[in-house]
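re the bet — no i am not wrong, look at it urself. input seq straight from the record:
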Amino acid sequence: MPREPGIRYRFRPVTEKDLPLLGRWLREPHVAEWWDDPDEELAAIREHMDSISVEPLIVELDGKPIGYLQTYDPHLEDGHPYADQPFGTLGLDLSIGEPELVGVGHGSALLRQFVDELFAEGAPRVVIDPDPSNIRAIRAYEKAGFSPVGERTSIYGHVMLMARDNEEIET
C-alpha cells in the first residue's frame, strides 16, 4: 500500500499482541535507562489500553514496529503537573525500541509527523518531558520543533518540559 507523500510513519493502537515486543523494548539498555521498571511500565501500558486519558501507540515504519509513543491529556488527570498548560494541550512520551534505529533521525522525523497530525486535529500545544540529562532526546525534540519551557520536578521526577505550539491556534 503506497504511502501518502510526506507520510513516513504509521501510528496504531497497542494491542495485546504487542505486549511481548514492548516488554523486550523496555529491557533494551537505551530504553531502560530512561523508563522505570520494565514490568511496571508494561503493566501501566496494558492499563492505558483502556484509558480515556492516555493513548498507547506503536510506531511503524514500512509496516514494521520500531517504537512506542503515548499521548496523554494532562487535564484529564487530577493534579497532573502539566495541567497549567493551555486547555487542549497533549503530552507525549516516546521511545525508539529497536537499538539499530536510535540516533539516525527517526525520533525527530516521526515526532514532526505525529505532532503535525495532532495540530491538524486542533491541538493547540504538545509537550514532552525528557530527563534534562537525556541530551540525545532533547536534541531530537528540538529538531522536531520543540522548545524548552523550563525544568520541573514532580511525581514523575525532574524533567525538562518542552513544547511545540500550533501556529494556526493562539495559545
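see?? Residues 9-165 form a domain with the Aminopeptidase fold (CATH 3.40.630.30). told u. also Helices lie at 19-27, 29-32, 38-48, 106-120, 135-143. so pay up
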